[in-house]
Amino acid sequence: MFVALEPRRLYRQVAEQLRALIETGELPTGERLPAERELAERLGVSRPTVREALIVLEVEGLIQIRMGSGVYVSRKPPTKAVLPADDSDGPFELLQARCLIESAIAEEAARIARPEHIAALDALLAEMAVTLEDSHQALSIDRAFHTAIADIIGNSALNRFTGLIYDRRLSPYFEKLASYFEGPHTWQMALEEHTAIRDAIAAGDPEAARHAMREHLTRSQKRFSESFGEEPVRED
Hints:
Structural class: mainly alpha
Radius of gyration: 20 Å
GO molecular function: DNA binding
Order of helices and strands: HHHEEHHHHHHH
Strand order of the largest sheet: 1-2
Domain HTH gntR-type: 8-76
Pfam families: FCD, GntR
InterPro entries: GntR_C (IPR011711), TF_FadR/GntR_C (IPR008920), Tscrpt_reg_HTH_GntR (IPR000524), WH-like_DNA-bd_sf (IPR036388), WH_DNA-bd_sf (IPR036390)
CATH architecture of the largest domain: Up-down Bundle
Oligomer: single chain
Helix content: 55-70%
Largest sheet: 2 strands, antiparallel
Region (Disordered): 216-236
């Protein structure tokens, strides 16, 4: 029924295989899919990869994710299935890329930050603290915080790149994933992590700044790694 996959845009391959099973009726309408852990084992991929694939299929309307209950086939697929564009990166790919790149940016920023840079970060932290209930606003301020750190270095290309890679998370697939796992409590965590990054940069401690940024984006990945199913959450 399930075939182990080779490592090439795995979430797309998982979505394609599940879609084919729905189309042939092997996974009929109303049926509950195997739990995430079981799907990951059968396909030979990680649970985050399975999660990304399930989000693609839910955006297409092929499945319904019921938190705490599981994932169910909702209807037959449309005449022509629509996968993300070939250059669409999965949410976990994006977060990993940001972790690697922005950790280095924070490290360099800590070496050269001036008082006005720290004041700009403080203003964004204060603004974020009063918008935790509004995910749209919090997201905008979150982006501004990360690009403000790149601004410290004074390299326009680097600043533009930071903004561009951040904006990749505005895809319908990432937004759908965020709709399950993002809210005031996660923005509060992000605010605390942002504060740790700010403090390390203000202290002129490059190693601490790198660590704080890596910790922030690693924790962001974990916040999106909850289970859609009934089993307790465990890390892969």
